[in-house]
Amino acid sequence: MAIQHAKDSNFAERVQSEGITVVNFWASWCGPCRMFAPVLEEFEKEAGAAVSVVKVNVDESPVTSSQYQIMSIPATIIFKDGIPQHSEVGILPMKMLQQLSRG
User: Fold this and answer.
1) Which residues are catalytic?
2) What are the disulfide bonds (predicted)?
């Protein structure tokens, strides 16, 4: 499954599924976000159908970003069955993504 992009209008349906969803909050002007993108893409390929990966552009989705109190980016929130379980700010190494997404 490819990385999905969510906006305020469809964020809830993207994370309400059963299982693990990794949500990355980012912006096109954010250097660390651009550095994290290839790690996230590789993680998504390795995880396959076991994990959904969703990206949210904070500039295009201010309501969702505010709802989850995103103050710094990149920010990553791990959801399990639609419920936030863990959040981290900054570039996450592949091993940390793998550990956090095991549920």
Assistant:
1) 30, 33
2) 30-33
